[in-house]
Amino acid sequence: MAATTSPDAPLPVGQVSRLIGGWIDRLGAVWVEGQITQLSRRPGAGVVFLTLRDPSHDVSLSVTCYRAVFDRVADVVSEGARVVVHARPEWYTPRGQLSLRAAEIRPVGVGELLARLEQLKKSLAAEGLFAADRKRALPFLPQLIGLVCGRASAAERDVLENARHRWPAVRFEVRNVPVQGVHAVPSVIEAVKELEAHPGVDVIIVARGGGSVEDLLPFSDEQLVRTVAACRTPVVSAIGHEPDTPLLDLVADLRASTPTDAAKRVVPDVGEELTRVQHLRERALRCVTAHLDREERGLAAARARPCMERPQRMVDERAEQIDALTDRSRRTLGHLLDRAHSELTHTHARVVALSPAATLRRGYAVLQHEDGRVVRAADEVGPDEELRARVAEGEFAVRPVVAPPA
To answer: Which residues lie across from 366 on neighbouring strands?
Structure first.
């Protein structure tokens, strides 16, 4: 229960310290895992003092134990070792200090560490952090490369020298950090975040030389893996040697077998690129030359055609064809006109021969009533009716004559 206090009724420091100690005592004994950063074994002292640090966070606790407890693991435990401690929290009331009183210390073996890493690897893979479709392509020629490595390390020298040998104009933004020990993980994470936030960095290289499994453990830390997975800038992992495969290799956009290999894969070789450019220029020249040669041959073949050598020849051939067609059309039209004239002459002769005028010229006459009707029978004519007789050369009036009885 929270203590009831007020400005008029405050609690003394001693009582507050005792209350805190009472609350801490309720926690009871716990198993704690961490990495030993400081170890103090004073000769003749019955108590050993340790500092236990979280490898992934900047948090540490003081641990004390009796010499007998520590002597059981003294041969296998030293500064930098990972241990599991069974301890009870203790609150030192006079000074207000918290520490852990260890009753048992167990070293974390390599086999156990590898088993935990394998379990973490499966968990992160299930989340898709190692998926190939998450990998980002590296820029062809990065203008500024971020480098996370140990200070004055062989890895830093290999990356810088090989990169500048391949492309002298390349620039680096270097972050020197601890690459092993308790401070490695938070330092590397902070450096990666700084380079990720840098607007000019095109690619980030995290490099470290070889080492034991324990030395490379910081590069399999879950927080570091998630930090790299969240980066928008491509990240290259160059940790250890070819057989070393920390989890950072799996989440990075590119895994380099060594720091030297990272420099070769991030920066193109200026000599190779100049050679490639020269080859491309030669290839382009050959292509253009071949195209011009092909077009020249086509032009020569076109010019060699008869119609191009003597363009008027086509006109002459067409003129001869036009003359022949004109003569043929005239002959055809003349034949048609001659035949039509002959047929017209024959028709005219037949019409003339069959016309009434021709009959009249042979001495016949046509009798007509006064109204113009032709007389066809004798009984159509009255005794006193005056008729008109039409002959070939004119007409005249006639009267019928009644014949005397026989």
So the answer is: 390
